[in-house]
Amino acid sequence: MKEEEIFFRLLRTALGTGTAEGLRLTGKEWAGMAELAQKQALGGILMQAIEKLPPDSRPPKPLLLQWIGWTKNIESVNRQLNNEAVAVSLYFKEKGYRSMILKGQGVAQFYPRPLWRMPGDIDIWVDAPRRELARLARSADPKAEMVYHHIDMSGLAAHFPVEVHTTPSWMNSPLTNARLQRMFRQWKDTGFGTETALPDTGGSVRTPTLEMNRIYLLVHIYRHLMTEGIGLKQLMDYYCVMRLEMDATEKKTFTEQVHRLRMERFASAVMHVLGKVFGLERQRMPVAPSEKYGERLLEEIMRAGNFGQYDPRIRHDRLNTEGGRFYERMRRIARFVKDYPDEACWSPYFKLWHFFWRLRHNNGRP
User: Which long-range contacts (CB under 8 A, 24 or more apart) does 274-279 make?
Assistant: First the structure.
C-alpha cells in the first residue's frame, strides 16, 4: 500500500468513516506518517486514529511519546487561542462593532476533538467602515498595512497574529467578486452569523452560519490554491462542515451560489477529495465529484503541503520582494489556466490593480 493511501486510511479511521483493522506499519512507515501529518498540519487528527489502534499496532514507543507531546501542545495552544479570540471579539464589541471569527476557532467546533485541530491565527470580520478600522489599527501601529480584504492589527492578542477583515475574502474576476461581496453583505444583513461558545473560556464569539461556511471555506481553499498552495488541513475544515446534514433547499441554494461564482468545476474537484481522503458519502455531496479534476487537486495538495510551505517548485528566496512574489505567483497561476481559466486569467489584472490600491491606502507603501 502506498504511503499516501495509508495516511488517508488513518484519517478515515480518526473520523470514523473507515477502519485501520489489520493495519501493521513498520517503524519507518510510522515515521513517514508523522512526516506527512506535520506537512499537512494534521498531527492531532492522526492521534485520534492512533488511539483507536490496538497497542501492538501503534507507533514505536519513542515516536508515540513524541506524538502525544505534539498533541498536548496543540491542545494547550488551542485553549490559549480560544481565550484570546473571545477577548478580541469583546474588544470590538466594546467599541460598538459587531464581529465574526472566521475559520480557525469557529470551524474547529465542528471537529470530533476541537482542541486537536492545528491552531493558526485569529481572523475576525468586523462590521465597520474600512477607514475606521484603518484608523483604529494605525493608532496602535502607524505602519499597519492594509490589503483589499483585511488589515493587520498588532497588540489585540498577546500571543497570536490578528487579521481584521473588512470582507471575508475575494475573487480575481470582477464579476464573480462582485457577486461574492453581494453574498457577504446579505449574510451580514441577515443576522451576522451565530453565537458559538468556545471551550473552557466562559465566553462565546459569533461565527458564520453553515450556509456561509459552505461557500466561504470553498472560496478560501480556491483562493489559496491560486496564490500559495493549500493543504489537507483546510480540506479537513471543509469536510467537517460538509458532513453535516443538508436538506434539499440548502443543496439547491449551494449549487446556485456555486454557479453564480463559476466554481462548479472546482467544487466537483473538492468533493472528490473529500470523498477519497476523508470518506464523505456521496449523498452528502451537493455537486457530483469529478475524479479528473479532483485527482489533479489532490496531487497539488500532497505536493505543496500546508499553505504551500513544502512546495519544491516555489523559489522561496524570491518571496522577499514585490517583484519576486509576483513572478512566483504568476508561475503558479499558469498551472491552473486549463482547469480554472476564469480565476487564473484574471489574476494578473487583479494583482496589478491591487498594487495601486495598496499604494493609495497605505500612505504610498505597496
Answer: 274/235, 274/238, 274/239, 274/242, 276/8, 277/8, 277/11, 277/12, 277/232, 277/235, 277/239, 278/11, 278/12, 278/15, 278/17, 278/235, 278/236, 278/239, 279/12, 279/15, 279/17, 279/18
Say how far apart CA 255 and CA 261 lie, in whole Å: 10
Instruction: Judge contact between 326 and 349, C-beta under 8 A.
Output: no
**Residue found under cell 494578473:** 348
**Residue 314 gets which letter from DSSP?**
S
The cell for 133 is 478600522
Integer Cα distance of 260 and 171 in angstroms: 12
- For residue 71, give the nearest of 39, 53, 41, 47 by alpha carbon: 47
Closest C-alpha to 109, from 28, 29, 204: 204
Q: How far is it, in rounded angstroms, from Cα 253 to Cα 119?
A: 31
CB 85 within 8 A of CB 101: yes
**What's the CA gap between 218 and 21, in Å, rounded?**
33
How do residues 201-224 score in pLDDT, each as one tens digit?
889 999 999 999 999 999 999 999
Separation between Cα atoms, residue 272 and residue 269, nearest integer Å: 5
Rg of the Cα trace of the chain? 21
With H, G, I as helix, E, B as strand and everything else as coil, classify residue 335. coil
User: Does residue 123 sit in helix, strand or coil?
Assistant: strand
| pLDDT tens, residue by residue, 95-122 | 999 999 999 999 999 999 999 999 999 9
For residue 257, give the C-alpha cell: 451560489
DSSP 3-state assignment of 60? coil
Rounded to whole angstroms, how far apart are CA atoms 361 and 37? Answer: 40
Joined grid coordinates for residue 362:
497605505
Per-residue pLDDT of 299-338, as tens digits, reads 999 988 877 776 777 665 566 676 767 677 778 888 899 9
How large is the angle between the packed helices 174-189 and 248-260, nearest 10 degrees? 140
* Cα–Cα dist 34/272, whole Å: 25
